[in-house]
Design a protein that fits this description.
It is built from 14 helices and 23 strands. It is about 30% helix and about 25% strand. A hairpin with a 5-residue loop joins β11 and β12. By secondary structure, it is of the alpha+beta class. The chain has a four-stranded mixed beta sheet with strand order 21-22-1-23, with helices on both faces. It has a four-stranded mixed beta sheet with strand order 2-14-16-15. α1 runs parallel beside α7 and α8 runs parallel beside α12. It binds uridine-diphosphate-2(N-acetylglucosaminyl) butyric acid (EPU). Uridine-diphosphate-2(N-acetylglucosaminyl) butyric acid binds next to α1, α5, α6 and α12.
């Protein structure tokens, strides 16, 4: 089983190139099924969630050509099945985007119900409400969602709570429905806007993405396009928090600083310097961090996907900090692991009360999910001595070559497979 072994205690210094946004890429790859013409996508992150979705697209007849390390050409002219049921698709939550894409183009789809996830109960009732409003019949049987309709018709859809997935899924299906659709209380995340821009570049007519109200005029046909995915706001934020926690100086490059504003604001409150330029943000931390309070919210609020990383940093800040998770109910599972590194954090329901400690100490910890795994790596980078982070398959779902990028910033980290490699690492870095 692969794991990261880390010797902590060094500030991270240097520049890191941020890749394409995983969560935008998942939606955009699914939307590529909506035309028979060829789609070229660039700035695609090479992470396991993306590769699982590409495999699923190939399984139903899509043709995928890797034209470079971060680019693919897709042709979905010969989709021969609307029933997607393979191991690859069961692994990823974003399988639900295939429902919106296939329903839009072919008016039918059968996709496994996304299983429970380790960050909490993740219902898809709002996605289904949207599809039903567009006229689809939805059945759930034998663990599968079966959607079909004679014809999709535009509708006025109010989302009872803000959902990124439901907004994107309805946007995809409605793009090929007859007539006009309005989505109210829509999510405004950068990847919602990126998916809308992508669909528009295929000939869709979507207005208002990035605001609470999205208006979609259905079209009969979508065409091929060439598209570059936006930079990953969460990968960038993770390195920004790594700079803060290790008292380092990191420039994240190839980013859209506007997407990082809530993270930059919190870092400034914590006593870091944040310098923005056109496509880069530099975070400098020279002294002990100060406490602050954080509440996760839909965009432009502070992202839930950055909650574990800031909790780890605040665990080292002076004073008491309070972090409230308002999106997913089980997103503090990593706190037990962090406690084993010396953190003093009490979780009560959706709130973590953090009493900053002077330092963490190295330990063997296990990544409970993607973002919490990245946060534990940050903790290990600050910790005194050696740490091992197990279950890194979660981290690799969303971070490309994270250990390589960290090494370039001066971190002492290696990906190893066996106990003897850990011993070798310790001897080498004694
Ligand atoms: N919700 C419902 N009903 C629904 C859909 C959502 O009640 O039908 C609730 C959820 O339970 C949650 C809230 O609405 O409380 C927001 O969920 P949302 O639908 O926005 O999340 P998602 O689409 O399932 C995406 C990202 C997550 C990210 C969230 C929030 C993808 C593939 N996933 O999930 O990313 O945390 O938005 O920004 O885009 C990650 O990358 O690590 C990750 C978990």
């Amino acid at each position: 089983m692969e794991q990261f072994v880390i010797k902590g205690g060094r500030p991270l210094v240097g520049t890191v190139e941020i890749g394409g946004a995983k969560n935008a890429a998942l939606a955009i790859l699914a939307a590529s099924l909506m035309t028979s013409e060829t789609i070229s996508i660039d700035n695609l992150p090479n992470v396991t969630d993306i590769n699982a979705l590409l495999e699923a697209i190939e399984r139903i007849g899509g043709h995928v050509e890797h034209t470079g390390p971060h680019s693919v050409k897709l042709n979905c002219a010969h989709i021969d099945s609307f029933n997607i049921d393979c191991d690859c698709i069961r692994k990823i939550r974003a399988s639900y985007y295939l429902l919106g894409a296939l329903l839009g183009r072919y008016k039918r789809a059968t996709v496994p119900l996304p299983g429970g996830c380790n960050i909490g109960n993740r219902p898809i009732d709002l996605h289904l409400k949207g599809f039903r409003s567009l006229g689809a019949k939805i059945d759930i049987s034998h663990g599968m969602i079966v959607a079909d309709s004679e014809e999709l018709t535009g509708a006025h859809i109010y989302l009872d709570s803000v959902s990124v997935g439901a907004t994107i899924n309805i946007m995809m299906a409605a793009s090929m429905a007859k007539g006009n659709t309005v989505i109210e209380n829509a999510a405004k995340e950068p990847h919602v806007v990126d998916t809308a821009n992508f669909l528009n570049s295929m000939g869709a007519s979507i207005k208002g993405a990035g605001t609470d109200v999205i208006r979609i005029k259905g079209v009969e046909k979508l065409h091929g396009t060439e598209y570059t995915i936006i930079p990953d706001q969460i990968e960038a934020g993770t390195f920004m928090l790594a700079a803060a926690a290790t008292k380092g100086d990191i420039t994240v490059k190839n980013v859209i600083p506007k997407h990082l504003e809530s993270i930059s604001a919190k870092l400034i409150e914590m006593g870091c310097q944040v310098h923005e330029s056109d496509d880069a943000v530099r975070v400098v931390a020279t002294r002990r961090l100060q406490n602050t309070h954080v509440k996760t919210l839909p965009y432009p609020g502070y992202p839930t996907d950055m909650q574990p990383q800031i909790t780890v940093a605040l665990g080292l800040a002076s004073g008491i900090s309070i972090v409230t998770e308002s999106i997913f109910e089980s997103r503090f599972k990593y706190v037990d692991e962090l406690t084993r590194m010396g953190a003093s954090i009490k979780v009560e329901g959706s709130t973590a009360i953090i009493e900053g400690v002077e330092r963490y100490t190295g330990a063997t910890v296990s990544a409970p999910d993607l973002r919490a795994g990245a946060a534990l790596v940050i903790a290990a980078l600050t910790a005194e001595g050696y740490s091992t982070v197990e279950d890194i398959k979660y981290i690799e779902r969303g971070y490309e070559d994270v250990e390589v990028k960290l090494r370039e910033l001066g971190a002492v980290i290696e990906k190893v497979e066996e106990e003897k490699d850990i011993q070798k690492f310790k001897l080498k870095h004694a």
